C-alpha cells in the first residue's frame, strides 16, 4: 500500500476521483493543480479536505520537487486536452503537456524518487484505429475527404478495393498514429516517461483512457467532451445534435472505473508496468449514447437529432481491447452504461472560465475539434 502520493491535476475530472479513492484508503495525498481556466472557473467545491492542495504550475521544477519529496508514488493526471479552437493553441498544449511532464520527471530525479509513476494517457495515441476488409484483412483507411462526406458516405472503405470496412479493436501493441497536436503531446508524454524509466529503473504504468464520462465533468468547453455537451443541451431543453449518421462507435467508461484503474496501478504489488487500455470493452454508437442520456432526463426531454454534419478531422470509430488490463492489472469496468448515464444526467457539473465565452464560441469549438468526442 502506498502511504504518500502526489497527484498532479488532482483538482480535475479524473484526478479528483483518484484523490478521493486514495484518501479513503488512508494515504497522505499531495495535489498539485494549476486550476487552468480551460478546466476551472474557480476552486472546485468538491476538493477533498483530507488532501493537501498546492495550486501552482507543474512546469515549475523547484515547486514540483518540493511537492514530490518523500512520496511513494506519483499519479500524473495534469494535462490540457483537445486542441482548442485554433492551431495557435499548439504551443500551450506542448508546453503544459510535454514540458510539464519533463519538469515532473526532472523534479522526481532531483528528489531521488524511488516510487512508481502512473501516467494518464489517451486513446487518441492510436489515431483512426484499425479496420478489417473481408479481402485484405487488417488495414488503415485512407484519409477522409469532403466529397464522400458531403454525399453522406461516412463509413471508411478499403484503400485497396474500396469495399466498406468493419472496425477492429486496438490493442496496446498497435502502432501509435497521432493525428492532432493533443494526440502528439500524449505520445510524447509516453515516450518521455519511457526514457525516464530506462534511465532510472523506476516502474511506469501508462493508462490509455477511452471516452470518460461522469460527475465533475467540466461544462460547455471542448475540455468536456461530447457527453458533457449533450448533457448541457438537454439541461437547456434543446435536442442534442449528433453529427454524421450517429453510428460512430466509441467506448464510454465511467470516471469511477477510471479512478479504480489508477488505484490498481498505484497499489499493485509488485508494480505492473506497460501501457493499458482503460475502457468498458462494450462499444456504443454516439447516437445510442445521446438517446440513453436523453431517456435519463425523462420522457419529456427532447430527442437527439442526427444532422449529417461532419468534421473532417474526426475519427469514425475507435474501439479498444481491455483484455491486457484485465489480465495484468485485474481491472474490469463495473459501472453499467445505463446506470452511469442516469447518474450523470443528475450529477453536478463543473463550471469553467471557458464556459463564460457563450454558446457561439462553443459551436465553433464543436466544429473544429475531433477530441471533443
Strand content: 15-25%
Bulk shape: globular
User: Mean pLDDT across all residues, rounded?
Assistant: 90
Low-confidence stretches: 355-373
Lateral strand order in the biggest sheet: 3-2-1-4-5-9-14
Describe, in plain words, how this protein is organized in 3D:
This protein is α/β, with parallel strands linked by helices and 373 residues long. It is 34% helix and 17% strand. The chain contains eleven helices and 17 strands. The protein has helices spanning 13-24, 61-68, 90-110, 146-150, 181-200, 226-235, 255-267, 286-296, 323-329, 337-346, 359-368; strands at 4-8, 28-33, 52-55, 73-76, 116-122, 130-133, 137-139, 166-170, 204-209, 211-213, 241-242, 249-250, 252-254, 274-278, 284-285, 305-306, 319-320. It has a seven-stranded parallel β-sheet, sandwiched between helices. Strand 6 and strand 7 (137-139) form a beta hairpin. It is globular, with a radius of gyration of 20 Å. 47% of the residues are buried.
